[in-house]
Structure formats: C-alpha cells, structure tokens
Amino acid sequence: AQTVTQSQPEMSVQEAETVTLSCTYDTSESDYYLFWYKQPPSRQMILVIRQEAYKQQNATENRFSVNFQKAAKSFSLKISDSQLGDAAMYFCAFPNTGTASKLTFGTGTRLQVTL
Amino acid sequence: DTGVSQDPRHKITKRGQNVTFRCDPISEHNRLYWYRQTLGQGPEFLTYFQNEAQLEKSRLLSDRFSAERPKGSFSTLEIQRTEQGDSAMYLCASSLFGPNTGELFFGEGSRLTVL
Q: What residues does A89 pair with on adjacent strands?
C-alpha cells in the first residue's frame, strides 16, 4: 500500500524568506504523479503544484518549486519569497494506483509566516 | 461563484441523530469525492462517484454512512445514528479527470460536531 509521510507538523518562516516542506512516500509504481495542496484557515484546499514522476525536471509554479528525488522517494516543496498569504496547512498527496479514485494525503505541515 | 459548494458549513447535533450533507460540484465535472478530515490529520478518502455510479467506498464508510449522487449532479452524504467519533470536517471534491493526473477541486467543507 502506498504511504505518504510528512515529518514536520509545523514550520515557521519570516516574510520574504525561503522555506522547504518535506514529504516522503512509498510506492512500487514507476510512473505516477505527486501533488502539494494548500489549505488556508477556513478556506478550501487548492492545488499548489504537481510533479510527474517520469519527468526529471522539477516542477515550478511562480514562487513554488519542488525537489523531486525519485530514488529516495522524496518530494519536498520550496516556497521562495514567503508571503503572509502563504500561511496555511500544506498537504503532500499521492494517488493510489490500482484505483481510479483515491488520493492519499499526508498528515500535513502547518506553515506560519511571520513579519 | 462556480466552485464546489457544500451545505451546511457547520452542523451541531446530538448523538444518535441523523445528519445529511449536500455537495454541489463544478457543473462539468463527472467525478465527485467525499473525504473526512479530523483535527491534525490529512483528508481521508470516503467514497467516489463517476456520474451517478458510486464506484468505490472506503472501509471507513460504515453502514451508518450512505452517499448518493442522483442524476450525476449534486451528492448527499447521510450519517445515521451519529456518534461522537463522527465529529470531523467532511470535504467534497470534484474533478474532470482522475486523481492520478488531474486536479481535485475542493469545497470549503461541512464541519460536524456530535455532542
């Protein structure tokens, strides 16, 4: 069974600084996608960034980028130039292969952004 | 607003009562998901619909839980004889493609408190 592990329950970053959130996963598949979702307080969860496992190039979306290390099964999220609006819960997510429907989420990392 | 909407946003009920949550997905999305999220945890998959067909149910979905999606549009999640352990945020999401590749669009959730 696939598992997703986020070992940092909370992280803090100063505004304009860079922070990296960690995620590891376990799978026997060779081709898959990985996702980071953001859940702001009292607001809906939204997709931040997506990585295709067969692509060697790390995905980037504006200030958000990933460090994907397939052999190590590691998928970290880097947020550059942090803004107050980045404060949220961040979840790493992995689709369960063998089923068309299930996305497995990690336990999340709460990111605080300070002035 | 054409996003995923959920109703009610908050529900407080006494143990043993029945509750029903409604989800209106994005209109062109044929896939609909229910997740449950407890404090400090990531969302856990409950069930999945493709159009009106319920194609997968988690073992978390006991026989007190029932979900429907008549006519492949809105969906309802009913919990009968609620227990205190049912207290959680119930999230609905919809998508055009499966979670293996596509983005899930989440609603803001329905928070259930069972006294």
A: A39, A110
User: A44–B3: do the CB atoms touch at under 8 Å?
Assistant: yes
Query: Which residue is it, tokens 């979702």?
Result: A37
Check CB contact of A108 with chain B, cutoff 8 Å: yes
Neighbours of B62 (CB within 10 A): 11
Tell me if residue B111 falls in helix, strand or coil: strand
Residue A43 and residue B108: Cβ atoms within 8 Å? yes
Contact flag B103-A47 (C-beta cutoff 8 Å)? yes
Beta strand spans in B3-74 (E)? 5-7, 10-13, 19-24, 31-37, 44-50, 53-57, 65-68
A99 reaches B (C-beta below 8 A):
yes
The set of residues, in sequence order, having a beta carbon less than 8 Å from that of A57 and lying 6+ positions away, is none
Quick: pLDDT tens for B30-68: 999 999 999 889 999 999 999 999 998 988 888 999 999
Q: Are B37 and B44 within 8 A, CB to CB?
A: yes
Confidence of residue A98 (pLDDT cuts 50, 70, 90): low
- Report helix, strand or coil for A56: coil
